[in-house]
Structure formats: C-alpha cells, structure tokens
Design a protein that fits this description.
This protein is of the alpha+beta class and about 500 residues long. It contains 16 helices and 13 strands.
C-alpha cells in the first residue's frame, strides 16, 4: 500500500517493522531510535543499518502510512485472526486518551486526520491536548484485533456506531457479541446495535437507577452465580465474593417524544465484594467528614469561623470533598452573646437507603434469554477488564504517552504503529499461556525471584527475553544466541522458536 521512493535505501515496511520492535523492547523517541538500533542487533536481525534510522526517515515512513491506517490495521488484524485462529465472536470495546506535548494550533493541523484538542483526559492532564484511541479486544487471549485513532475532543458515546460495522466484519459469519462500558448506553447506540443485529452487553450508568429502587430488592431472591474473581482464586471459599442476579426489562426512551421506547433485558447484579468495599469507603468518608465538622463546630465563633457565612462556606467544602451532601444536615444559629453555633448530623434514612444499594449494579443486553441467561450475561461481562489491562500495556511498556511528534498526521500514524506492537505483545502472551495450559494450570516458575508460579504477561515475557545476547561470528562461525538463564530457553520453547536461529528473535 505504501511503495517506497526508488532512491530510498529502506522500504516503509522495514522502518515500521523496526519501530514495532523498538516499542516491544525499549521504547525511544524517534530521534533516539538509531541509538537503540545500534545496541539491539537490529542490523543483524532485520538487515537495517542503525545509521539509516534517523528521525527524518522515520517521519517519512509515518507520513507514507498515514493515508492507509484503516486498511493497514484491518489487513494485519485479518492476518492475525487467520494465522492464530483467533475467536472474534466476542469483542470488548473501549476508548482511552493519550496526552500530547506541544501547542498544535488548530490552523496548522491536517483536517483529514484526527485533530489534537483539549478533552477529558483519563490521566487528568487537563493542561495537555490529547488524541484518543479505541481498541476492540477479542475474548480469545485479550488480543486487540481492531484499533482506531479519534479526535481529542470526540465524545466516546458517538464512536460506538462507527465501530459496529468494522467489528461485525471481523466476526465474519459468526454472530458478534460486543461488550462495552457505560458509554454505550444511549438511545442512538442501542438502536443502531439492535438494527445491525449485534448482541451487546453494557453497564447501566448509576444515575439511571435510584437508590430507592435498589433498596426495594431482596438479595435472597436473586440466583447465585458461580463466578470467582481472578484475584480471589487463592482465597478460601468463605472469603471469596459472591454474585447474585435478577432480571427485568430496561426501557430506553428516545430524545424526542415521538421516538419509540426501546426495550432491552436488564440484569441486576449484586456483588458481596463490591458491597463490602462500598460500605468501607462510605464509613471512611463519614468518619473524615465527622472529624472535620467537629473541628468547625468547636471553632465556631473563633478566629477562623467567626461568622455564620464562614461556617457555611467551610461546611459546603466538606460536604463536597467528602461526598456527604446527600445525608448531611446542618443548622447554624447564635447563642445569647451572638456567637455562631453549628449543629450537624447525618440523616440515618438516607444512609440506610445508600447501604441498601451497596453492591448492586445493572447490565443491559440484547442477547436472547434462551442463548444467554442472566448468569451467562454476567460471566461474559466480567472479562471487560481485559480492555483496561491492554490500555495498561498501551501506555506502560509500549510508552504511548506522552506523545511528542510534529504533526497530527504523524501522531495518528505513530499511535497505529504502537497498536501493531500491542497486537504482537498480546499474541506472544496468548501463545505462551496456551502452551502452559496444555501441560498444566497455565502458570510457570522463573519469572519472579521468589520462585512464585504465575501466569506470564506479555510485559514479563519480553522483559526476560530482553536479557538474551547475540554473539557475532565470522565467515565460518555463525552468530550465536547467548542464554544466561533457563527461563530463556523455556520461553523460546513455549513460543515455538529455535534458539539456534537468531533471525527469528
């Protein structure tokens, strides 16, 4: 798709391949990639001289692939699905933001590519502009099979419809199940999914259901689900969280009165673990608020809280920061000498209603009950954390943020290259885990100093393989891969790689 200049010494494919390798091993700014290549045997493995990888050549490669990002990402994903036999019938979708360093004035940006703008950054760097990326992660090994770059100011809700067709094409003849976060919940998205015949699961925003509704539910009437969180697998059964489900119907009215009301299944989920966490968090908030309110009460009429206005102002700050405004009741009066007096208490009825709602949340789905009962809906949704874990890889070892590239066209291309690196990272992790699961429980020794048996992550696998060294040979002496630890050979064996063939490393 991107033929090189006949005068160029490297093809764009070679440059992108090296960039992907850089992100998987030791991410560096574009002007440092040449230095990295000199120390990481890039010439011996890829046949690319380190001196040719200057930032101008890398930038030209990004410019060349920028007009073809969707086609490139789609073709590579299709190749991965075919080569590794990925099951893409279930795909989890989410969007994240990447902070971008630089001014990037709007007048200087290319309108054909995602715009770098201020938005609502996930990392809370409101002082920086951003772009956004959406990932479609299949349930089979949590591999990202779809990635797309969006404007920094684009709303997450509006991107769901555009992703439906692409994900549906990836699923091919299989019926797609799309699992998303609460941003999917809007009349337009739900209507588009129903019209497209795409099954979906998404949480209902907390604001859509009142505490009074939750307080009217009876947990004992809910059916228990055999579901254990991965973090609790080693705990005794009595210490693990328990899940229960009920089912009813969620009406979704349109923005206009004449719009037909959509009806979808609603799964009401109660988690004992969530209930305990919410109860503990509320107790901490109340305790901190009580201590601060008592300090104001004792200081009323003194140096800092000498007037009713100052007391009211401080109480308002406490109510907002400790999130107790709904249950806090206060009265400010004066004594015989005219000194202000503060009286306060927490409304027990409000607290009881909040406590009754602890642990409850709701999911909506279009999956038919005959094919996916309430318990199955919950189990399908519980894997949504895979997307968040991939964003951790995206912004962590692959170092996608912060980004500093001169043009928004190149920013989009660089992020797409990093998405390719993330795809390979996840395929490596999937292959190692599948090999371990064929012979055991999917865990292995040697990744941590204490000998703990763990499920290997892509980050940990590449960390250990980064310790391999290549000894250069001569005319009659081939290059040799030097292994310092047994875990190197074990990982290569799990990946199906021959240690005697360094060109594959």
């Amino acid at each position: 798709m991107c033929p090189p200049d006949p005068r160029a010494q490297l093809t764009h494919g070679q440059v992108v391949e090296v960039l992907v390798a850089n992100r998987l091993t030791c991410p560096a700014p574009l002007f440092r990639v040449g230095d990295w290549a000199a120390g990481w045997a890039v010439e011996e493995v890829f046949g690319v001289e380190a001196g040719l990888l200057n930032d101008d050549r890398l930038a030209r490669a990004l410019d060349a692939i920028a007009p073809h990002l969707d086609k490139l990402a789609g073709s590579v994903a299709a190749g991965a699905i075919s080569a590794f036999g990925l099951d893409v019938a279930r795909i989890r979708w989410d969007i994240t933001s990447m902070s971008v360093h630089g001014s990037y004035p709007e007048a200087g940006q290319d309108g054909d590519y995602p715009q770098i703008r201020y938005g609502h950054p996930k990392d809370r760097r409101v002082d920086l502009k951003q772009v956004q990326a959406g990932l479609g992660v299949c349930a089979d090994g949590a591999v990202p099979v779809h990635a797309k770059v969006f404007d920094g100011g684009a709303g997450e809700v509006a991107q769901v419809v555009a992703a439906i067709q692409t994900l549906k094409e990836l699923a091919s003849e299989k019926r797609l199940l799309m699992v998303a976060d609460s941003k999917l919940y809007c009349y337009t998205n739900i209507g588009a999914l129903l019209d497209a015949g795409v099954d979906f699961i998404a949480p209902v925003p907390a604001s859509k259901i009142s505490d009074e509704f939750w307080a009217g539910l009876d947990v004992s009437q809910a059916a228990e689900v055999d579901c254990t969180a991965e973090r609790e697998e080693r705990l005794p059964p009595e210490q693990r969280g328990r899940y229960r489900v009920l089912e009813d119907v969620q009406p979704v009215p349109g923005p206009r009165k004449r719009d037909p009301v959509l009806q979808v299944r609603r799964i009401l989920v109660h988690s004992s673990g969530n209930a305990a966490g919410q109860r503990q968090a509320r107790d901490k908030r109340l305790a901190k608020a009580a201590a601060e309110l008592e300090k104001v009460r004792r200081g009323a009429g003194g140096r800092y809280y000498g007037t009713a206005e100052k007391i009211a102002e401080r109480v308002g700050v406490i109510a907002k920061t400790r999130r107790v405004a709904s249950c806090l009741r206060t009265e400010i009066s004066t004594d015989d000498s005219g000194r202000p007096i503060l009286a306060w208490h927490f409304d027990e009825q409000v607290l009881a209603a909040e406590a009754a709602a602890d642990g409850w949340y709701a999911l909506i789905t279009s999956c038919p009950a005959k094919r996916c009962d309430a318990a199955r809906v919950l189990l399908e949704y519980k894997g949504q954390g895979d997307v968040e874990r991939r964003y951790g890889d995206f912004k962590g070892p692959l170092a996608v943020t912060p980004v500093f590239v001169q043009h928004n066209r190149r920013v989009a291309a660089l992020i797409q290259v990093i998405c390719l690196a993330l795809l390979l990272l996840c395929l490596i992790e999937r292959q190692v885990r599948r090999a371990l699961e064929r012979d055991g429980d999917g865990r292995m020794h040697g990744l941590y100093p204490n000998g703990q048996r763990v499920r290997p992550t892509g980050r940990m696998i590449l960390y250990h393989l980064g310790g391999l060294q290549l000894r250069l040979g001569g005319a009659t002496d081939p290059p040799t891969v030097l292994m310092a630890r047994g875990v190197h050979l074990h990982l290569l064996d799990l990946l199906g790689l021959e240690a005697t063939r360094p060109r594959w490393l």
